[in-house]
Amino acid sequence: MSAALRFLSKTCSSGPVGPVGLLGPVGLLGPVGPVAVPARGLRGAAMRLVQFLRRGDDGGGGMRVGVEQGEGLGVVDLTACDPSLPATVRGLLEMGDEGRARARRAVSSGRCVLDRADVRLLSPILNPEKVVCVGMNYRDHCLEQNAPIPREPIIFNKFPNVITGPEVDWEVELAFVIGRSGKHIKEAEALSYVAGFTVANDISARDWQMKRNGKQWLLGKTFDTFCPLGPALVTTDAVKDPHQLGIRCLVNGETVQSSNTDQMIFKTEQIVAWVSQFVTLTPGDVFLTGTPPGVGVFRKPPVYLKKGDVVECQIDQIGSILNKVV
């Protein structure tokens, strides 16, 4: 393997969206009829949960939990408002309704609001127990590679550390995070187990994914820093319909992927129900739901990321993450 590449967290420059972190330490790196509306995970508690450092505290002030007042706006410092709250979003989710109620009270108080310039956002989830990914989950992505539409979800994973070989590719994805534990979850109840949604980039080393390691996907997907995630965990009540969202990826300002989550073959509820047949889901588990067409490996000729490239992933209603290859 030569010329290892890593992904550096940078501040977003387009629109009102702010900085992002990595999934890991920040640094270098059917028929229609009457249906019941499924319960959502954070009913009546629409928030944009973030993890952050205060500017100037990078040397040891510690990670903090907050709530964005809106995309790119100020952040309510939950850690300052209620020091007894956990210092991670995962810890807050593990508290269940109590933790979210206390977060809502802090936001309603109008106290402890930090200016956006004083905040450096990290990934909204760090060190999850599981990072579960769904392959070939966009109809238009299957079409671009002349692949059949899967009849069951194709599941693989990344390690939580989620650098790389010379053939590095981009994949913008809608991600969701589990908010409470469960197994054998019914599809009709699945959204009540989802805490919220965020933006992910499923960075992929295509040489390791497609040519080496027996063509098994794991190693090509799980180098350090290979899952930029952010900018916030947008709770389910804040997203009108996660399966009707514009989704885009830009490389050096050029749009390389542009689609809509309505192209997803298996929706969030189906994915939760399917995976929970096999493993117990726990708060903080991260799911990546697949990517639309436009990835570099299927271009003619193929295009791969190189040092200095800037990758921006955007999803409507959720935000944007921007990372530089270093």
Automatic annotation (TrEMBL):
Keyword tags: Hydrolase, Metal-binding
Pfam families the record matches: FAA_hydrolase (PF01557)
Family matches, as InterPro entries: FAH, Fumarylacetoacetase-like_C, Fumarylacetoacetase_C_sf
Keyword Hydrolase: yes
Domain Fumarylacetoacetase-like C-terminal: 130-326
Source domain of life: Eukaryota
Any one Gene Ontology BP term: oxaloacetate metabolic process
Sample GO molecular function, one term: metal ion binding
This protein's record includes keyword Hydrolase: yes
Family stated for the protein in its record: Belongs to the FAH family.
Protein name (Swiss-Prot/TrEMBL): Fumarylacetoacetate hydrolase domain-containing protein 2
Organism: Merluccius polli
Name of the encoding gene: fahd2
